[in-house]
Amino acid sequence: MEPFTTLRSRTVVLPAANIDTDQIIPARFLTTTTRTGLGKNLFADWRYEESGAPRADFALNRPAARACQILVAGRNFGCGSSREHAPWALLDYGLRAVVSTQIADIFRSNALKNALLPVVVDESTSNWLIANPGAEITLDVAAGTLTLPSGVSAQFPLEAFARHCLLHGVDELGYLLTRADEIAAYEARA
Fold it and tell me: Which residue among 11, 29, 91, 118 is least packed, with the fewest CB closer than 10 Å?
């Protein structure tokens, strides 16, 4: 994994509340254990007609959404089942962060384990972002801040271990491997 320090990107907005993991990546696409290729099925039931044609009015299908790496969503994003495929699909599509006023705990955990940044902000910041799709914002992992185009910043919570892993580009196993000598020394003493 690459270190995740800051991200400056335009936003794509899905203002719906309670976007669950089955909406993020429908169960029929969970037949793989690899992370690649899931992005094409991200929000499949919302993005595509039954014929498979893209819905022009869906946010991710609009030309303005191209290259956006930050998804702004309504309250309670990622609720539902604990499928790790949901953050995989978001990342494979090209998103690096999700911003909401509430992100489901299991989704947040799965996201952080895969270097997808879950950003929880206050109602005022969320309302501004939802009202201004395509706004270019900056996320600073070390400072735990989201900065709006006006320069106004909002803090977001990020537990210390997750911050460390993101900033150093390691997952939980990678972190343990960096401590292999210390682990071996401890085991030798035990």
Answer: 29
